[in-house]
């Protein structure tokens, strides 16, 4: 896997990202989570715990935010006016490091690079789900160093 360095996007990215519509990020996240749900990554108890609960993911240095809710057996974009039961916030590099399994959420949290607010029990459940989700093969192959 490619090593992702710790970085922060330049301030203009945050300024621009915060002015753009946020619903496309929520739709993309909901679509990805629904694909994982179809592969049965989530168990019945996890779906029950997530049911009706808004989870918000903020990428601080990009100025973007995605809010999702699990309702009717599917992940859906949540309204930005709905208060989250759980919120994650980190720079893009921290999320990328989790994605490629370079860093785990606990390490990022204890180094204050991942902020988690809200329902502690739900936070642990979502953190454990993040640890279990595997990258699709096509993306994993692209992240392999070319040698």
Automatic annotation (TrEMBL):
<keyword id="KW-0831">Ubiquinone biosynthesis</keyword>
<dbReference type="InterPro" id="IPR036527">
    <property type="entry name" value="SCP2_sterol-bd_dom_sf"/>
</dbReference>
<comment type="function">
    <text>Required for O(2)-independent ubiquinone (coenzyme Q) biosynthesis. Likely functions as an accessory factor.</text>
</comment>
<dbReference type="Pfam" id="PF02036">
    <property type="entry name" value="SCP2"/>
</dbReference>
<dbReference type="InterPro" id="IPR016830">
    <property type="entry name" value="UbiT"/>
</dbReference>
<comment type="similarity">
    <text>Belongs to the UbiT family.</text>
</comment>
<feature type="domain" description="SCP2">
    <location>
        <begin position="34"/>
        <end position="131"/>
    </location>
</feature>
<dbReference type="InterPro" id="IPR003033">
    <property type="entry name" value="SCP2_sterol-bd_dom"/>
</dbReference>
<protein>
    <recommendedName>
        <fullName>Ubiquinone biosynthesis accessory factor UbiT</fullName>
    </recommendedName>
</protein>
<dbReference type="GO" id="GO:0006744">
    <property type="term" value="P:ubiquinone biosynthetic process"/>
</dbReference>
<comment type="pathway">
    <text>Cofactor biosynthesis; ubiquinone biosynthesis.</text>
</comment>
